[in-house]
Design a protein that fits this description.
Cobalamin-bd, B12-binding domain-containing protein, 14% strand, single chain, cobalamin binding, 5-stranded parallel beta sheet, isomerase activity, Rossmann fold, 51% helix, alpha/beta, 154 residues
């Protein structure tokens, strides 16, 4: 098992690899769709993502699916990272994916924080959905996100 430092260094290397391939750093929109995540949690995740090499955009709390999608498209994000510690409504996730599809941006990866396995089977058909395992360390999670983004570049 890797330590946090090993995972962080791996994430930095993967970010650098991504930047060399794409010509820019990976860009992620971090959003808390419910008012259940503390500012400390959001700040930690934003800092960790930035420290490994991501360009991080923040969305206002409790934003609609349309606004989240529009912000991700306008910022040319590679991924949307949704923070929520409650069960997400399936409708909201589908609305985000549908909004991205309307604007022909199904390539934007939708990452959902916490275990939302009840929605995973249906949402995995969108091929741009990744549900995080709550038992995985955050830097390992960043490595997993980068692995998906790097697979898409080849």
């Amino acid at each position: 098992m890797k330590t946090n430092i090993d995972a962080m260094l791996t994430a930095k290397k993967r970010c650098n690899t991504f930047a060399q391939i794409e010509g820019r750093r990976p860009r992620i929109l971090l959003t808390n769709i419910h008012q259940d995540a503390s500012d400390r949690d959001v700040n930690f995740k934003a800092s960790a993502l930035a420290n490994t090499g991501f360009d991080v955009d923040l969305s206002p709390t409790s934003t609609s699916a349309k606004v989240i999608s529009k912000q991700a498209i306008e910022n040319d994000n590679h991924a949307i990272y949704i923070i929520s510690h409650t069960n997400l409504t399936l409708d909201l996730l589908i609305q985000i994916m549908d909004c991205l599809a309307i604007y022909n941006r199904k390539d934007i990866l939708l990452v959902v924080d916490n275990d939302h396995k009840t929605h995973y089977n249906l949402l995995s058909t969108y091929k741009s959905f990744y549900a995080l395992d709550s038992k995985t360390g955050f830097y390992d999670t960043i490595v997993q996100i980068l692995n998906i983004l790097l697979q898409r570049t080849s």
